[in-house]
Amino acid sequence: MKVVNRAEGWIGYRLNILGIRVWENDCQLVAKIGGDRWETIGPRRTLPVHIPQTVEELKAAAADSLRTTAYQYVTVQKEADLVEVLCQQKDFEVALRDKVDKFVE
């Protein structure tokens, strides 16, 4: 699910219990902690971040929970723009408006 918080300037890409929050120049892993509450976990990462595209790249990234979560997300959500946003190939302002499932405050 793609969730946008325009007030705080981020896009959330959520799976069942893990996801990735992306700001214009950074990203961070998030976890569902109850109800519809999501908390950031781990360090922020500066963009761009490369997402594994092959089995070999996935094996090399196995210890990197952010990259493996991104791999899982794009495997499940094939139409998602997460790879383009994390690689900074898609304008962040466009991504804030494009194919959003839910807006939050």
Task: Spell out the key features of this protein.
single chain; 4 helices; 28% helix; 105 residues; alpha+beta
Task: Compose a concise summary of this entry.
This protein has 105 residues and is of the alpha+beta class. It contains four helices and six strands.
Structure description:
With 105 residues, this protein is α+β, with helices and mostly antiparallel strands. The protein has one domain. Helices cover 28% and strands 33% of the residues. It contains four helices and six strands. Strands 5-4-3-2-1-6 form a six-stranded mixed β-sheet. The protein is globular. It starts with a strand and ends with a strand. The model has no long low-confidence stretch (mean pLDDT 93).
Query: Helix-strand pattern, N to C?
Result: EEEEEHHHHE
Main sheet overview: 6 strands, mixed
Portion in helices: 25-40%
- Shape category: globular
Assembly context of the chains: single chain
How far apart are the termini?
16 Å
Class from helix and strand fractions: alpha+beta
Spatial strand sequence of the major β-sheet: 5-4-3-2-1-6
Q: How much beta, percentage-wise?
A: 25-35%
